[in-house]
Structures are given as structure tokens and as C-alpha cells.
Design a protein that fits this description.
CATH class of the largest domain: Alpha Beta
Number of strands: 7
Structural class: alpha+beta
CATH topology of the largest domain: Heat Shock Protein 90
Order of helices and strands: HHEHEEHEEHEE
Number of domains: 2
Distance between the termini: 37 Å
CATH superfamily of the largest domain: Histidine kinase-like ATPase, C-terminal domain
Radius of gyration: 18 Å
Strand order of the largest sheet: 2-4-5-7-6
Length: about 210
């Protein structure tokens, strides 16, 4: 328990201490890009900006994880439109697409969207770049699915990938491996379930099960 508390305090301190200077760096890069006309220099600036954005995403992941471990996240459950949820997720993820749906679930709209964003981001990093969202009713519950066309996940890794700071062998991105852990913790707070169906060479489908509203 003491080690868990120390980890939470460490993640919180790291996240908050790095957030402000990184935000300033992003502002400086944006201002500099508007003043640079040389094509090669703009390309370098673009790469620097993407690297900084990736680092910002890692820091936000650490802060989310620390808040969850500290018990500072309280869900507010209500009737959530999956159509509206899919529209919001796709608006910030140009590589994602979604099937039409009229289903509603009993969930926290903000936390559920955070879960979906992590699953879509996971598809972008590990699943070939594209994500397809869909939903269907199954025995009174709703299965919200995120399917990718990536290399797939071996059966022995299906549970391990949801643990903190886990990156599978052969991963090419520089993420911290916390996105799926955060999604799982958020789902648990709302009595949702997450699982993956996948096999090597067949892509992966992540499923969030929630009560139908």
C-alpha cells in the first residue's frame, strides 16, 4: 500500500512539474512556425512539434493514472448517446470511422469518451493506424467495439496488455504503455468491462460492455 502511495505521489509530481514548461514549449514552437518560411526548416519544426505533442500525451497519461490511483475520479452516470459519443471521438481522430447507431448506455459521458479515445489512440499506435467504431446490443448490455487492422495480439498477451507500463515486444512507438490501463481503471469505476479479441495477423477488436439505457 505504501509503495502504491509513493508511486501515485511520484506520478503526480512528475506530471504537474513537466506540464507547464511543456505547454510553454508548444506555444514557442507554434509561434516560431508562423515566422519560418523555409520549407526544410518548417519540416524540422513540424517534427519537433509532433515530438512535443507526444510527450504532452504521455504526461497527461501519467496525471490521469495518478488521479485514478489516488481515488480522485468519481463517475457521474447518466444516459449517454453512442451516436454523439462516436461523433465526438471521430472529430478528434481523423483516422477513425464509425457505424451508425441509435443505442444509449448508462455511463459517465466524459469518462466513457476518455476510454474510447485511449482505445482509438491504441489503434493508431499499434493497430495499423485505422480504427472502426461500432455498437450492438447483446443480452441486455451494449458492446461498444473499436476494431483495428493491425498485426494482432497473441492470446498469451490478451490480459497483460491492460497492465500499467506494458509494451509488447516489437512495439515501434515511444508510448509509456498506460492507455489501456487507464481505460480499464475507468471502466471498472463505472462497472463496465473491457476485453480484447485478437489473433496474430487478424487485427484486434477491443470491446467495452456497458448497461443499455
Amino acid at each position: 500500500m505504501d509503495s502504491d502511495g509513493s508511486k501515485t505521489r511520484f506520478l503526480t509530481a512528475i506530471g504537474h512539474d513537466m506540464r507547464q514548461p511543456l505547454h510553454a514549449l508548444l506555444l514557442y514552437l507554434s509561434a516560431l512556425e508562423r515566422r519560418v518560411e523555409d520549407g526544410e526548416a518548417r519540416e524540422v519544426l513540424g517534427k519537433a512539434d509532433r515530438a512535443a505533442q507526444a510527450l504532452a500525451g504521455m504526461i497527461e497519461g501519467l496525471i490521469q493514472l495518478a488521479r485514478l490511483d489516488a481515488g480522485k475520479v468519481e463517475p457521474e452516470l447518466e444516459r449517454v448517446s453512442l451516436k454523439a459519443l462516436f461523433d465526438d471521438v471521430i472529430a478528434s481522430a481523423p483516422h477513425a470511422a464509425a457505424d451508425a447507431t441509435e443505442l444509449y448506455v448508462h455511463s459517465d459521458p466524459v469518462l466513457l469518451e476518455t476510454i474510447m479515445q485511449h482505445l482509438v489512440a491504441n489503434a493508431a499506435k499499434h493497430g495499423g493506424g485505422d480504427a472502426h467504431l461500432s455498437a450492438e446490443e447483446n443480452n441486455g448490455a451494449v458492446e461498444i467495439k473499436v476494431r483495428d487492422n493491425g498485426p494482432g495480439i497473441a492470446p498469451e498477451d490478451h490480459e497483460r496488455i491492460f497492465a500499467e507500463f506494458v509494451r509488447l515486444e516489437g512495439a515501434t512507438n515511444n508510448g509509456l504503455g498506460v492507455g489501456l490501463a487507464i481505460a480499464t481503471k475507468l471502466a471498472s469505476l463505472m462497472d463496465h468491462k473491457i476485453e480484447v479479441r485478437s489473433a496474430p495477423g487478424q487485427g484486434a477488436t477491443f470491446i467495452v460492455r456497458a448497461k443499455r439505457a
